[in-house]
Design brief:
Ribosomal Protein S5, domain 2; Rossmann fold; five-stranded parallel sheet; 21 helices; 16% strand; protease; nucleotide-binding
């Protein structure tokens, strides 16, 4: 046999397109030619593969070898194709049979000794291989990650000789069996730890029930960061599909996708982060913080200290729940369905409106500080909450009546289940058509709501978001219709100014 075909997977954003590796042997001076738009690391694979084959006690064929990675217009990088290339050469030279290679896909970088090294993005490849109905061969270090794709046959190997011995029938291998994902992960911080702040906790619970965005504003030390860090713990558990989406994102970035399985991500980038770090970028697009927070929480502390251009790039993912990063050679689509929680001080010194300390800022400084946040961005934040300073005795008294994280999570799960049964998604993701049928108001309430919106200067987008929050409050009280009391509470979270 002089022609053999094997299969592997490239890495394009969070997707793993199939790559067909064609290996052909012909007469002529011994050489190895690699075509198919390979990048530097891929072109160097011919030297790694040559040494790996020789050191695995096989013969490297002294003939003219042509390797084609198809499709030719798909960029290919890294050493992930090494194992497929080596098996293709061995099959085309008759050292292993060709037929079994039709139903497998391989991912692995070869060492010169023939050992197989792990690669990133294995989970995306595993999900794609399962869809195609092929088995997946990976390095032992990647096997547990690949086994997350339930129903996929995974083989874990450590050396090229093991793979060749399996296909030649000398020493057949058995599929990898996962030992389970019972991992010790850090528990979520408890909501009880935040003393007092009844109104802010109420807003946090509303945000969790409806997947709404939230902005905390108040003096330093009032508990804004503590409140935000409690949100992931009261959100519903991830479904299997959502957990796989999150794990696949962390897999393509080279992070350990199983370290927090299956918890929701909580990302808190520093306020010096760039726009590329926030939404993704680079010559080869990589996921940014909005994608790393997919199905979780993106917390932006010191909200007004972020560069205005960085904050403005959040507008698209907040609206569309995805981000497209375009470069000259390629374009990548990254998911970005996250809850935004932001925290800020009301003025540069932080004490505007504080009853215990006087503000040192001039009106011009306060206006300039608050104008760092644009109207379109604030429109996309559903709940604006002022977190005031409380006395120690009052906060301790209120804290005795507070919900624990477990109790709050149970309430949120009940409300989310009601929403999924009714419309298949949390209220924050209601479409305009769904909004018209689910968030109906009486004629008097409609007129009152429109007049209130005009006085507050709310845009149509803001009014729609207010209706969604009102629907969430009604769901929390198990009421079928939105009342004026629900609308009044929502408008309380939409102040004239911060």
């Amino acid at each position: 046999m002089t022609l053999a075909i094997t299969y592997s997977r490239a890495l394009l954003g969070v997707e793993a397109p199939c790559v067909t590796v064609e290996s052909h042997l012909s007469n002529g001076l011994p050489s190895l030619t690699l075509v198919g738009l390979p990048e530097t690391a891929v072109r160097e694979s011919k030297d790694r593969v040559r040494s790996a084959i020789i050191n695995s006690q096989f013969e490297f064929p002294p003939r003219r070898i042509t390797l084609n990675l198809a499709p030719a217009d798909l960029p290919k990088e890294g050493g992930r194709f090494d194992l497929s290339i080596a098996l293709g050469i061995l099959a085309s030279s008759g050292q292993i049979p060709v037929e079994p290679l039709k139903n497998i896909e391989c991912l692995g970088e070869l060492a010169l000794s023939g050992h197989i090294r792990p690669v990133k993005g294995v989970l995306s490849a595993a999900l794609a291989a399962r869809k195609e109905g092929r088995a997946l061969w990976v390095a032992r270090e990647n096997a547990e990650e690949a086994s997350l794709a339930t129903g996929l046959t995974v083989y874990a190997v450590g050396h090229l000789f093991e793979v060749a011995a399996h296909f030649s029938g000398q020493k057949p291998l058995t599929p990898f069996e996962s030992k389970g994902l019972l991992r010790t992960v850090e528990p979520y911080p408890d909501l009880v730890d935040v003393q007092g702040q009844m109104a802010a906790k109420r807003a946090l619970l509303i945000a969790a029930c409806g997947a709404h965005n939230l902005l905390f504003s108040g003096p330093p030390g009032t508990g804004k960061t503590l409140l935000a860090s409690r949100l992931p713990g009261i959100l519903p558990e991830l479904t299997e599909q959502e957990a796989l989406e999150v794990a696949a994102i962390y897999s393509v970035t080279g992070s350990e996708p199983l370290s927090h399985w299956p918890q929701r991500p909580f990302r808190s980038p520093h306020h010096t982060s760039s726009a590329a770090a926030m939404v993704g970028g680079g010559s080869k697009p990589q996921p940014g913080e909005v994608t790393l927070a997919h199905q979780g929480v993106l917390f932006l502390d010191e909200f007004t200290e972020f560069d205005r251009r960085v904050l403005e790039v959040l507008r698209e993912p907040l609206e569309n729940h995805e981000i497209v990063v375009a470069r000259a050679k390629e374009k990548s689509l990254f998911p970005a369905k996250f809850q935004l929680v932001a925290a800020m001080n009301p003025c540069p010194c932080g004490y505007l409106g504080d009853l215990t300390r006087s503000c040192r800022c001039t009106p011009e400084q306060v206006k300039r500080y608050q104008n760092k946040l644009s109207g379109p961005l604030l429109d996309r934040i559903d709940l604006h909450v002022h977190v005031a300073r409380e006395t120690l005795s009052l906060s301790i008294t209120q804290n005795k009546q507070q919900l624990t994280t477990a109790e709050a999570a149970k309430q949120v799960a009940t409300v989310r289940a009601l929403q999924h049964k009714r419309q298949g998604c949390p209220n924050a993701y209601l479409t305009t058509k769904q909004l018209q049928s689910i968030c109906l108001l009486s004629k008097d309430d409609q007129q009152w709501f429109e007049q209130a919106g005009e006085k507050l200067g709310l845009s149509l987008r803001a009014l729609h978001r207010c209706l969604k929050v009102a629907r969430t409050i009604a769901d929390m009280q198990d009421e079928a219709h939105i009342s004026r009391a629900h609308l009044a509470e929502v408008l309380h979270y939409r102040p004239l100014s911060l």
